[in-house]
Design a protein that fits this description.
heterodimer, A: 199 residues, Rna Polymerase Sigma Factor, Chain: A, globular, B: 238 residues, 4-stranded antiparallel beta sheet, 25% strand, binds zinc ion
Chain lengths: 199, 238
C-alpha cells in the first residue's frame, strides 16, 4: 500500500498513527490469536467499513456486510499470501467484492425500477464518509484522481464506489459498448503509477 | 472473446465491474495468465487506496459482536495441494455434472475383497478391463489427473484406473464409494498411493448408480466427507 511505501524525500510525514504490521496480525490471526485479530480490526475497520458503507449506503446493511467480511477474514487469514499483494489490498478486495455482491443481489430483486440511478453520475466523495480521513494517502489519491481524464475518473468511481458493471457504466456515461472497461483499466493504471503502489 | 479482449478485463475485474459470467470466465483466464495475475494484483492495490477517502468507523457494538463471533469460528488451515481448486460442491451437483457410464445388468461377485482395494491384484483389474462387456468412462480430475472407471456386467465388478493422481494430504487417504439405487454411498475400499493406480472397487458394482472418490482421514470413513474429489455416474451413457 502507498502508506507502506518509502516516502519520497521532501514529502511531509503522513499525519496519522504508525501503521500496524497488518501482515503479522493476519498471520497471528490465522493461528487463532484473537488479540491480534482485535488489533487488526482496530487498525482497519474504519477503512473497511467506510468502503462498504460507501458502496451499500444503507448503514444497517453495511454493518452486516462489514461483520461478514471480518468473519471471512478470521476464517481465511491463512489463505492470505503476501507474495500476491498487500494485506490492506487483500482486505479491501474481500470487502469490495462482498459489498458489490450485496448491492447487485438487492438490485436483482427490484429490477422493475428502471430509472437506473441516472442522477448519480457525479459521485460525491464525502457523502457517506463524515469521518473522511485527511491523511496523506487520501490527499495523494485525490491528487492522482485529478490527473485522470474526466471519463476515466467517472468510470472508475461508478465502478468502484457505485458497484456498477463496466457495461452499465458504458450506458451511464454514453460510451460505446466495450470501452468503459478500457477507461477503467487505463484510469487504474494511471492511479497505480501516480501513487506508487504495487511496485 | 479473443485472448486480447480477455486481458483487457483486468481493470474491470480488479474493481468488481464484471458480471458473474465475465468474472467466471476471467478467473479461468487468470489461472493460466501470470501477466494478468500480476496486473490484477497491482490494480487491486491501487483500487484499495480509494478507501483512504471514505473512512467511517462502524459502531462500537459491531466490534463487540465480531470479537464474540470469532470465538466460535475455527480459522481454516492454509491451502495445501488439492486435487481440484474449484469451490466445493454438493454431492448431488457433482453427480449431475459428472460423466456417465452405461448401466449394465446383474452380475456375480467373483472376488472376495479385503478392506483395502489397493491390495487387489492387477490381474483382477485386467479381468474387468478385458471383459467382453466392459464399459468405460474417463473423468478429468483437474491438474492433469484422470480417472477411468471400468465396469463389467457379467463380472458385476468395477475397477478404477488413475493417472497423475496427486498424493492425498498428510494423514489422509482416498476412499472409493459405490452409490446404490437407494442413493446411499457404500464404502468400496481405500485407494492408497498416488500417480498411476489400478484398483477393483469393493462390493457388487452391477447395481450401483455411481462411483465416488473422496479424501478421508487415514483408515477411511463410514460415510463420505465433502467435498468429493469426483463422482462418476454409471447410468445413461452410451
Ligand atoms: Zn491475461
Amino acid at each position: 500500500m502507498s502508506h507502506l511505501q518509502p516516502v519520497p524525500s521532501g514529502t511531509p510525514v503522513p499525519d496519522q498513527a504508525p501503521v500496524a504490521d497488518l501482515g503479522a496480525l493476519l498471520r497471528q490471526s490465522a493461528r487463532g490469536d484473537q488479540q491480534a485479530f482485535a488489533a487488526l480490526y482496530d487498525a482497519t475497520s474504519a477503512r473497511l467499513h467506510g468502503l462498504v458503507l460507501r458502496v451499500i449506503r444503507d448503514p444497517a446493511q453495511a454493518e452486516e456486510v462489514t461483520q461478514e467480511v471480518f468473519l471471512q477474514v478470521w476464517r481465511t487469514a491463512a489463505r492470505f499470501d503476501e507474495a500476491k499483494g498487500s494485506p490492506l489490498a487483500w482486505l479491501m478486495t474481500l470487502a469490495h467484492r462482498r459489498a458489490v455482491d450485496r448491492v447487485r443481489a438487492a438490485e436483482a430483486v427490484s429490477r422493475q425500477d428502471t430509472s437506473y440511478h441516472q442522477n448519480n453520475h457525479v459521485v460525491d466523495h464525502d457523502s457517506t464518509a463524515e469521518a473522511a480521513e485527511k491523511s496523506m494517502e487520501a490527499r495523494r489519491v485525490r491528487a492522482a484522481l485529478a490527473e485522470l481524464t474526466p471519463v476515466q475518473r467517472e468510470a472508475l468511481e461508478l465502478a468502484y464506489f457505485g458497484g456498477y458493471t463496466h457495461a452499465e457504466v458504458a450506458v451511464m456515461l454514453d460510451l460505446p459498448v466495450g470501452t468503459a472497461k478500457t477507461r477503467i483499466r487505463d484510469g487504474l493504471i494511471r492511479m497505480r503509477d501516480a501513487i506508487g503502489v504495487g511496485q | 472473446m479473443t485472448a486480447h479482449e480477455i486481458h483487457a478485463l483486468s481493470g474491470a475485474y480488479a474493481v468488481d465491474a464484471l458480471d458473474d459470467l465475465e468474472r467466471a470466465r476471467f478467473e479461468d483466464h487468470l489461472a493460466a495468465c501470470a501477466e494478468c495475475r500480476a496486473e490484477v494484483a497491482s490494480l487491486q492495490d491501487a483500487a484499495a487506496s480509494f478507501s483512504s477517502m471514505t473512512t467511517a468507523a462502524p459502531s462500537a457494538d459491531l466490534r463487540a459482536k465480531i470479537l464474540a463471533d470469532i470465538k466460535t469460528v475455527r480459522p481454516l488451515p492454509p491451502v495445501v495441494a488439492r486435487l481440484d481448486s474449484r469451490r466445493p460442491r454438493r454431492w448431488a451437483n457433482l453427480v449431475a455434472a459428472a460423466a456417465v457410464l452405461t448401466v449394465l445388468g446383474g452380475g456375480v461377485t467373483v472376488w472376495q475383497q479385503n478392506h483395502s482395494t489397493s491390495q487387489a491384484p492387477i490381474s483382477a483389474v485386467d479381468q474387468i478391463r478385458t471383459a467382453a462387456d466392459v464399459t468405460a468412462v474417463t473423468q478429468d480430475l483437474g491438474k492433469g489427473a484422470k480417472a477411468t472407471l471400468y465396469r463389467s456386467a457379467s463380472l458385476g465388478k468395477a475397477a478404477l484406473v488413475t493417472s497423475h493422481l496427486p498424493a492425498a494430504p498428510n494423514g489422509k487417504t482416498y476412499q472409493l464409494w459405490l452409490q446404490n439405487r437407494a442413493g446411499h454411498m457404500v464404502n468400496a475400499g481405500l485407494l492408497d498411493g498416488s500417480g498411476n493406480r489400478a484398483v477393483v472397487l469393493q462390493g457388487d458394482a452391477s447395481d450401483a448408480t455411481a462411483a465416488g472418490i473422496t479424501v478421508e482421514p487415514a483408515g477411511g470413513s463410514q460415510t463420505p466427507s465433502l467435498p468429493v474429489v469426483a463422482v462418476i455416474e454409471f447410468e445413461k451413457a452410451t
